[in-house]
Automatic annotation (TrEMBL):
A GO molecular-function annotation: peptidase activity
GO biological process: proteolysis
Signal peptide residues on this chain, from the entry's feature table: none
Domain of life assignment: Bacteria
InterPro entries the UniProt entry points to: GUN4-like, GUN4-like_sf, Peptidase_S1_PA, Peptidase_S1_PA_chymotrypsin
Coiled coil regions in record: none
UniProt cross-references to Pfam families, sorted A to Z: GUN4, Trypsin_2
UniProt keyword annotations, A-Z: Hydrolase, Protease
Domain GUN4-like span(s) in chain numbering: 247-351
Name assigned to this protein: Serine protease HtrA-like protein
Amino acid sequence: MIKRWFAWLGIVSILIPFPVAIAQLDQSQLKEITVRIDVEGSYKEDGGSGVIVRQQGQFYTILTAYHVVQEKRNYKVLIFNSSNQQIIGSHIINEKNIKQIDDYDLAEITIQSSAKYRTANIGDSQQLQPTDDLTVSGYPLPSSKITKRLSTPTLNLGKFNDKLPPDALLKGKKGATLKMDVTTEVGMSGGAVVNKNGELVGILVEADKDASGNKSSSLAIPIDLYPQWQAIRNSQRLSSPLPSPNQTLEQLLAAKKWGQANDKTWEILLKEGDADQSGDLDSFEVKNLECSTLKYLDVKWQQASGGEYGFKVQRGIYSAYHSEYNRDNPESNIDKYTAFAQKVGWFNNIQEISKDLSPNSLYSRKKTNRGFYPIWFMYGEKIEKIPFGLPVPIYNEYNELDDLYKYREPWQSEGTILYGRLLDCL
């Protein structure tokens, strides 16, 4: 029986201000409400995206841009698991399942399934103000950048610019009155436009062009042009859903419940990155963590602790010990990391990472050093997998150090796999 407990530590470069939109919403939820729409037959170059907005028994409603599904063809709606990118729903539809909404470039698709799909939280597009943060989610078509359609949607950050006047409805816009400064690609039409709270406020339909025919901004149909938007929104408010992991983390941080917040932080990373559902993160999974998630976690820890905890704080401490990774002398690298661990108060030497060091013994400390949270290290009687590539001891059957330098996950040039990812992101 392998006994393991995982906590985590981050070493980060200088914090860069970033848009709030994608930070405050749950990215995995946004990915799961965004569907891919492929065209069956000989029209593989066509297709678009859509958003699941409602469940009524075994029937689900999906909104998309009407031009994505207006031809009399068979289309395939694909729904993916956000963690492992596996298909969890595949539905063939045609004109019998598709209904145009008034004369807008907006369509309603109905599918039937006994599976449980996530639905979007409906917002109020009328509350948008210029410069509000927005996130657009959709599946680009193959291009010079990608050779085939992906199994996870592209998430692009942007700003709400303006709402076109009502007469724009009569000038070929077909309801596309939300103007946004955001990068979009062919194939993302019909995808979700969400506000900073993760609420659906629009359906992406097209790129607006200036007098010269060049793209100047992106356009979306406001959700309030969908006749059922208010009814769906009201029903969601009455249902009182459980708070998301992000909301729970913020509540724990606000209450200064640091140990529980540390556990919730790990839960958020696992939910996003643990593709094989093994209970930890390997090097491949760490390298695919969303940058915005790492930024979000760092900012929330810093804000709640008044600058005492967080990635940036730890980075400042670690920089005093960190130098270029020495591949020929792994012991020196362990010494650097151990010196850092001593400074923040986790342990005094690497031999202490053993069964005697428990989560409760760390969380119950009444006084902690600056940079103590978030915690990152691993201990156990035996080691089979090292999530982020930090040095840990390997014990033999006599609970003695067997070989300090055998790692399943190799160190990267910057010291650790997680550190390398943070440098990529921040």
